[in-house]
Amino acid sequence: MTPSRDISRLLEIMAALRTPVTGCPWDLEQDFATIAPYTIEEAYEVVDAIARGDLDDLKDELGDLLLQVVFHARMAEEQNAFAFGDVVEAISRKMIRRHPHVFADENGHLTPSHVKEAWDRIKAEEKAERAARRPQQPAEHKSLLSGVKAGQPALIRAMELQRKASTVGFDWNDPRAVLHKIREEADEIEAALDGGDAEELAAETGDLLFALVNLARHVGADPEAALRGTNAKFERRFGYIERALEAKGRSLESASLTEMDALWNEAKGAERRQRL
């Protein structure tokens, strides 16, 4: 089978991978749940390529993300739920409907804010239509937080939950108050360490992360971007440790934590001097 610019070839490849007996054993044993983490991972890699300004890499990462859509669509087709063409038709219909100023006979100049308002209004209408088509369920409590999407990455969703709650005054007015909460959560983790309960430790760690997101929100920082920056800093400084040890004919395994920590501080100092 040869590659092609036509989407139909990619669909054929995925169908071949999922064909019992002759297909790929790994692909055949996957389902929606097992593929979902890869879908998220590929979306992040697209974001990373954009952040690095690497358009060649972006092309490849977009292909990887497209493969995720094809994979999910193929599994749905095997269950007679929907196929890739149905996915394309659904998003095409949605884009046409949400852009009446482009695809319908509507005159007049629209600003980006007007477009956003129209998008949100039409999106709400679509949501109401979908709800009306579903079997009637007992009335549920309508929470202020119901509109926060569940499928978002945890850091982003934490930020949105906090923003939503702040609209009714459930918020701190001073970042220092959030800092106090962070210290409180850290103390609770220390207490949980004494108890040795893994579930409690996980819960308390989540509370600390949530408080840190709150601090990021109050100081105007994007927690996701901030963490990506720290990841890059960690890689850079750890790389300094590796190169410094290699220059001495040493390996990471032969170095003590004290030695590595000293080299870490060297890297940190060098970065600080470069900024001056």
Automatic annotation (TrEMBL):
Boundaries of every NTP pyrophosphohydrolase MazG-like domain copy: 30-103, 176-237
Region (Disordered): 126-145
InterPro entries cross-referenced by the UniProt entry: MazG-like_dom, NTP-PPase_MazG-like_C, NTP-PPase_MazG-like_N, NTP_PyrPHydrolase_MazG
EC number in record: 3.6.1.8
Signal sequence residues: none
Catalytic activity: ATP + H2O = AMP + diphosphate + H(+)
Superkingdom field: Bacteria
Any GO BP: dUTP catabolic process
GO-annotated molecular function: ATP diphosphatase activity
SUPFAM superfamilies given in the database record: all-alpha NTP pyrophosphatases
Principal EC category: hydrolase
PANTHER family reported in the protein's UniProt record: NUCLEOSIDE TRIPHOSPHATE PYROPHOSPHOHYDROLASE (PTHR30522:SF0)
Family: Belongs to the nucleoside triphosphate pyrophosphohydrolase family.
Protein name: Nucleoside triphosphate pyrophosphohydrolase
Phylogenetic lineage: Bacteria, Pseudomonadati, Pseudomonadota, Alphaproteobacteria, Hyphomicrobiales
